[in-house]
Design brief:
Distance between the termini: 26 Å
Order of helices and strands: EEEEEEHEHEHEHEEEEEHEHEHH
Bound molecules: flavin mononucleotide
Strand content: 15-25%
Shape: globular
Number of helices: 8
Strand order of the largest sheet: 3-16-15-10-9-8-7-4
Structural class: alpha/beta
Helix content: 25-40%
């Protein structure tokens, strides 16, 4: 049975995964936190926590809450910063078989460019995932990923500063996701991942206050799966580069749905909070499905539900 995939066919080094199951940024730490719970080397790839140039403390508490079929978070990119990541985390990753992709976030285009430059050529890092669901400080705080122009601008600046494979992660909080996808593909993305969290809110009716310290946050988990699936389906039709599906995936059949919508790989996020082994369970679920259906190669399933 062949589950291997190539996520960056146009890149010099490429991004070869032994299987299509990745972890979603911000839900699996730096991978190191999970290595004693199961054999994380069996996964296709690990995407680490969102990384900014300087360390960040994140948003005020409370920052996490459960909703029916999902979770709201407003972590606000708490992280150790790129310097500590290179010094403390990358040397550990360099010893691993599983590729590690660094998720990067910035407040300006220059910050994304500086991050890309700093991470280029660091042993242990196999690719970058560019989180464009961040407020663009120089444009009044709208997310970079909302408009094709700003999304392409960030992508081009990252592309110009690294030889690593570049994945661009799209936000669902836009009315024109296919146009954003086309723009980032044209600007040099090797692959596209989607979706990030869906903007949401909850209010405590007794205190008459927003439940999250930041007032609004991002919704994830099973509640967003149908939204993510429809967006993946739409983006796959719009671009020629590989697409990675994410949003509410908790089982092998969830993953197969995304693959049939046209995704070459999948990311498991919130499910890891309920079951830390979820990414491995998803992988084993895919393998069982393929065995049962007599599928020899995962590529036979990619886009099976496309028109
Ligand atoms: C607590 C938490 C932190 C997250 N942090 C990041 C992040 O730093 N960068 C990023 O691109 N996405 C981040 N995400 C979004 C996830 O990677 C993923 O896109 C989203 O949660 C949808 O997938 P899921 O429903 O499987 O969780 C975060 C999500 C959660 C729940």
């Amino acid at each position: 049975m062949n589950l291997s995939i190539q996520l960056a066919p146009k890149n010099r080094t490429g991004l070869h995964l032994a299987n299509p199951v990745m972890t979603a940024s911000g839900t699996f730490g730096y991978g190191t936190e999970y290595s004693h719970l199961f054999d994380i080397q069996r996964l296709g790839a690990i995407v680490c926590k969102g990384t900014t140039f300087k360390p960040r403390d994140g948003n005020p508490q409370p920052r996490l809450m459960e909703t029916p079929s999902g979770m709201l978070n407003s972590i606000g990119l708490q992280n150790i910063g790129v310097k500590a990541l290179i010094k403390e985390k990358a040397p550990v990753w360099a010893e691993w078989r599983v590729p590690v992709i660094v998720n990067i976030a910035g407040e300006t285009v220059d910050e994304y460019a500086a991050l890309a430059k700093k991470l280029d050529g660091v042993p242990g890092i196999s690719g970058l995932e560019v989180n464009i669901s961040c407020p663009n400080i120089s444009a009044g705080g709208a997310e970079f990923g909302v408009h094709p122009e700003s999304a392409a601008h960030v992508t081009a600046s990252v592309r110009a500063n690294t030889s690593l494979p570049v994945l661009v992660k799209l936000t669902p909080n836009t009315g024109e996701i296919a146009r954003v996808a086309t723009a980032v593909a044209k600007a040099g993305a090797d692959a596209i991942s989607l979706i990030n969290t869906v903007r949401g809110m909850a209010i405590d009716v007794f205190t008459r206050q927003a439940m999250l310290g930041n007032r609004t946050g991002g919704l994830s988990g099973p509640a967003i799966k149908p939204i993510a699936l429809a967006m993946v389906y739409e983006v796959v039709e719009a671009v020629e580069i590989p697409v990675i599906g994410c949003g509410g995936i908790a089982s092998g059949t969830d993953a197969i749905e995304f693959i049939m919508a046209g995704a070459s790989a999948v990311q498991v996020g919130t499910a890891s909070f309920i079951n830390p082994r979820a990414p491995l369970d998803v992988l084993e679920g895919i393998e069982q499905f393929m065995a049962r259906e007599g599928i020899e190669d995962i590529s036979e399933l990619v886009g099976a539900a496309q028109r």
